[in-house]
Amino acid sequence: MTPPKSILSTPGASSDSIETNLSEDPPQRKMTKSKKSSQVNKNSDDYRRRRERNNLAVKKSRNKSKIQTQQTLDRVQKLKAENEMLEVKIKILSKELSFLKDLFLAHAGNAHGGNLAAVNFKTLSDETEAGTKSPTPEV
């Protein structure tokens, strides 16, 4: 599909000359840097300087990657330890909640003629104390 002649035409030029210019092959491109690099003298000072700079950049990049990996592993270990601590805390708080519920139910039952002897306070308090000195959460 060709564009309309009004777009192709320029003042003073015929549409035939423009169409022939469009159909011609583009000029040959110059050799790119990548093709020139294969012709570099590997014994030259410039080449050695570039290789040395590249080697230093690679070492720096690898060291940075190793440091980031180690930091990530350290953080994972820290979070695992914190998770275990929080799971222990959950168990302790669950036992404390259960104890307080039983205590409340016993008190509510006693107020309405229930018997407090049904609650084993010794077992409940031992379970709570076994987990930690202070069963209340730290803020």
Automatic annotation (TrEMBL):
Start-end of Polar residues biased regions: 7-23
Region (Disordered): 1-72
Residue stretches spanning the membrane: none
Name of the protein in its database record: CCAAT/enhancer-binding protein gamma-like
Compartment(s) of residence: Nucleus
InterPro entries: bZIP, bZIP_sf, C/EBP
Species: Limulus polyphemus (Atlantic horseshoe crab)
CDD domains tied to this protein: bZIP_CEBPG
Keyword annotations from UniProtKB, A to Z: DNA-binding, Nucleus, Transcription, Transcription regulation
Top-level taxon of origin: Eukaryota
Protein family: Belongs to the bZIP family. C/EBP subfamily.
Name of one Pfam family that matches: bZIP_2
SUPFAM superfamilies according to UniProt: Leucine zipper domain
Ranges of residues in domain BZIP: 44-107
